[in-house]
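Hello forum,

I keep getting stuck at the same step: I have a sequence, I want structure tokens, and every attempt I make locally crashes halfway through. Rather than fight my setup again tonight, could one of you with a working pipeline run this one for me? It's a single chain of 113 residues.
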Amino acid sequence: MVQYVIIGVITMAGIVFAVWSLKRNAGDIEEERQQAIEAAVASKGGEIVAVEQIERENCPYSEEFSDTQRMYKFYRIRYEVDGRRKLGYGILCIEPSPYGPSLSAATEWKWHL
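Reply #2:
Ran it on my machine without issues. Output:
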């Protein structure tokens, strides 16, 4: 009987550890997204002025993103290159994972900078 209790405790501890190690909080995700946007703008030789998440209808490229199996996050990016202000858009394409926590989804960026 004691063996079954020990096995049960070890199993539960393993499950808790697995979920905890895969779980990320929203602040970490937003920081990752901000870093991806900064890297994309920097690759153009620019510096970010402002980034804002916008609704689909406010993005001129939204019609390109209609796959119902994916979710999309749209960002308006104001940046500066060589003293000139520019406007661009970043679209984060999210494909939810059928397994694991919801935050383990596959993501891909599409840029219009």
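The first strand starts at residue 47 and ends at 54. If your local run keeps crashing, start a new thread with the error log.
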